[in-house]
Amino acid sequence: MTIPAQFDAKTVEEKWYSYWMTNGYFYSEPDHRTPYTIVIPPPNVTGVLHMGHMLNNTIQDVLIRRARLKGFNACWVPGTDHASIATEAKVVAKLKSEGINKNDLTREEFLKHAWDWTNKYGGTILEQLKQLGCSCDWNRTKFTMDPDMSASVIRSFVDLYNKGLIYRGYRMVNWDPEAKTTLSDEEVIYEEQQGKLFYLKYKIEGSEEFLTVATTRPETIFGDTAICINPNDDRFSHLKGKKAIVPICGRVVPIIEDEYVDIEFGTGCLKVTPAHDVNDKMLGDKHNLEIVDIFNEDATLNSFGLHYQGKDRFVVRAEIAKELETSGALAKTETHLNKVGTSERTKAVIEPRLSDQWFLKMEDLVKPAIKAVLETNEIKLYPKKFENTYRHWLENVRDWNISRQLWWGQQIPAYYYGDGKEDFVVAETIEQALILAQKATNNQQLTTNDLTQDVDALDTWFSSWLWPMAVFGGIMNPENEDFNYYYPTNDLVTGPDILFFWVARMIIAGYEYADDKPFSNVYLTGIVRDKLGRKMSKSLGNSPEPLELIEKFGADGVRVGLLLSASAGNDILFDEELCSQGKAFSNKIWNAFRLIKGWEVSTTIAQPESSKVAIEWYEAKLQKTLAEIEDLFEKYRLSEALMAIYKLVWDDFCSWFLEMIKPAYQQPIDKATFDKAIEMLENNLKLLQPFMPFLTEEIWHLIAERTKEEALIISTWPELKAYDEKLIADFDNTIEVISGIRSVRKDKNLPFKDAIDLKIINNDKVSTYFDVIVTKLGNITNLEYVSEKVDSAMSFRIKSNEYFIPITGSINVEEEIAKLTEELKYAQGFLKSVQAKLSNEKFVGGAPEKVLEMERKKEADTLAKIATIEQSLASLK
Q1: 809: confidence class by pLDDT, cuts 50, 70, 90
Q2: Of 35-44, 668-677, 856-865, which gets the smallest average pLDDT?
Q3: Which of 261, 529, 646, 654 is the most buried (most CB within 10 A)?
Q4: Is residue 655 situated within a structural domain?
Q5: Is residue 219 part of a domain?
């Protein structure tokens, strides 16, 4: 069989992914095995693959592939989220480009466009995940708007409503004027922005006196319905019971008193706009103030804005400032840094707004979720540091605003049968609603035509919080086989930014509906940033195109590049060089395989002692690494697990093991050693398969012809066995000896083809077991243990052991003495500078411990070097 000189990633990836799919290796159904289940964090149906997806899904694939190798019934459920706000925005923009206004369409007409768009573009990201090598059970692909998934959401709403946990309320909400919908508190991102503070003068009715009020939003004066002062503030005691006149609009408003006003802050009094500030609303309720809503749903001013009607709030802010200044009502302005709430999705500045919305009571629902993570550890977060964030959110939770003013999503199953806001029933279907409405009205003549369904849709997160249950039919049919077998799932891999949005809510839902956790472990990835530490985004132009990276470096190379620096919870400073390193690793493995397969195998020659020793060592080293890997996987330290495998393969296997067993030039290798080399390579491939599935499957099948039952993807993870720790430690010493010999050869220009002698004073009583390796890799003619120093020899020291290579006539002794004397002089000078630092109390007292460790190591290394040079000089004189 001819093995190509270069690894062709693209061809191999297409070949093996097709092979895996054809043979159904990703497919799972309940059987006698223990299940291992992951549900994908469903990406938005609008989305395309980005670096965060690449990282997240590579980690999931590593976990699922390893579970498959370990004999579990591995099931990874893929799918997408309907993403109400994002998708509706995309569809509205598309319609606008075609000259169609959403408001001119019926709900049914709009939804047809939304489904057309989803069917055309919605599967893009899942197809891209296949190029990354993701081994999802594609037969189980779910979409949060699938009929069964939507039915689960509706049933959940009805159930919670019947339990008294869902209610309708007129409350202050976060309004996104671009998406024209309410948002939950968690969907609002607070950003520091430089703005202005406007000091406005309110005239006291019936006098020439003014009250000055500071505000960042002068445009809201049209909604002012009071001025508030602190009853204990002597400055304003004479104004009690009086009224003020709002500038421009001329509205006369009461001056109210409330200790809510901080006497020391600002001017000591504030304007009260109950319709546009949550704290003002509380004051308004307490003092029975009028509520004046001045904004349209797109944040333009309505008729209360007088001559500013129809203008955007920010346009009005600039224009009204000029009018206030002209009228003398603007005392002054100052620059002001304050936090402004923006929509996570549209980036629009949020407008507080009073609105009728649906809410879910959270106070009691969160209690099992707090207990599971923070008390019983039934669910573990990796890294543990995120428990504090989790605790803060859940212990300060507010009722969840679950309604959205959108058409794309599950429509709220509330049906109105009368004129009042309270005349409604909640049911899964309109037929069930009719029965309830007839009962409520005692009117059997009502028909479905008399019922009107609530126009709002449910928050997307209210759908996805059921994901681990709903994908297995656990809401609609909790006794079904799939749900009872696969739930609870094992691991969840996601970003910390949705720890509350999604993770905590899934835990809440799990205990509410299944009385069980939805998963056991949550692996929280870091954010992928560029090498300057900036979050990757299209607007910054610093985010590489994932598919282009795969094209350039191969899927395996990209996976390795990402994971080598992806420790849980820590941000990743991504550099393409990481992927280049991954590609180089692929080539290293490929070339090692080609080297082995290129050897001629003999069944007649005996196995050399050096090969026996090498095999024994590598088997021990592989077992030690396997034990380390198992421990790292248990702790979800996947980056470190990969690095351990990387070092095992690159350093131990390729650089040492193959060198130790390699036959002499143009000579055959004995069959016993060759077979062991193949066995060790196959074990390496098994460890690498979860990380580098394409390369390893290709080599696996090139090693030997395999049936579909013998594919690497369904082979077995190496068995953990006892190993000799001393053997590994002894070889570490052997590596130092060989490195010392090679340094002498290089320094003294002694070609490897020239055999040399080695004499050793074994002060440390180190094992002689690896002497056959030293002899082979050092090209030593005679290795001898001696009791005294050897004259006329180059020497080096490892710990207390001394190694001598006798001088041959090819070395000029006088030149060597001069060279070593110069090296000694330099080393002594360097030592002096290091010791000066370490004797400086100010330096030692102020330097970080790592810096001190480095300086102490420099001192120790230099002292050892000086001893070696002095020893070599002594042997030459």
Answers
A1: low
A2: 856-865
A3: 261
A4: no
A5: yes
Do 286 and 248 have their domain in common?
yes
Residues 134 and 245 in one domain: no
The domain boundary, picked from 322, 351, 380, lies at 351
Contacts of 153 (CB under 8 A, 6+ apart): 144, 410, 458, 462, 463, 466, 470
Work out the percent of the chain whose per-residue pLDDT is above 90.
75
- Strand pairing class (380-382; 521-524): parallel
CA angle 489, 491, 494 (to 5 degrees): 120
* Mean pLDDT (whole number) for 470-485: 97
**How far is CA 587 from each of CA 13, 552, 561, 684, 713, rounded to the nearest angstrom?**
15, 14, 14, 15, 21
The tokens for 676 are 């062991």
pLDDT value at 810 more than 60: no
Partners of residue 354 on adjacent β-strands: 172
Q: What is the mean pLDDT of residues 128-133?
A: 96
Amino acid at site 434 = L
Listing DSSP states for 40-75 in one string gives: --PPBTT----HHHHHHHHHHHHHHHHHHHTT-EEE
| Domain identity same for 70 and 194 | no
Question: In the chain, what are the helix, strand and coil shares in percent, each to the nearest 5?
Answer: 50, 20, 35
| C-alpha 150: how far from chain center | 28
Of 318, 351, 384, the one marking the end of a domain is: 351
Structural domains in the chain (count): 2
pLDDT band at residue 569 under the 50/70/90 scheme: low
CB 568 within 8 A of CB 578: no
49, 107: one domain: yes
Instruction: Supply the Cα-derived Rg of the chain in whole angstroms.
Output: 37
This prediction has a pTM of: 0.85
Nearest to 397 by CA among 293, 508, 276: 508
Summarised one tens digit per residue, pLDDT across range 312-348 is 999 999 999 999 999 999 999 999 888 899 998 788 9
Residue 374: DSSP 8-state: H
Whether 753 shows a pLDDT value over 90: the answer reads: no
- The contacts of residue 174 (CB under 8 Å, 6+ apart) are 182, 183, 184, 185, 187, 188, 341, 350, 351, 352, 353, 401
Which token pair is 319? 């224009």
Looking at the fold, whether 201 and 329 belong to one and the same domain comes out as: yes
* 501-503-506 Cα angle (round to 5): 100
Q: How far apart are CA 82 and CA 410, in angstroms?
A: 10
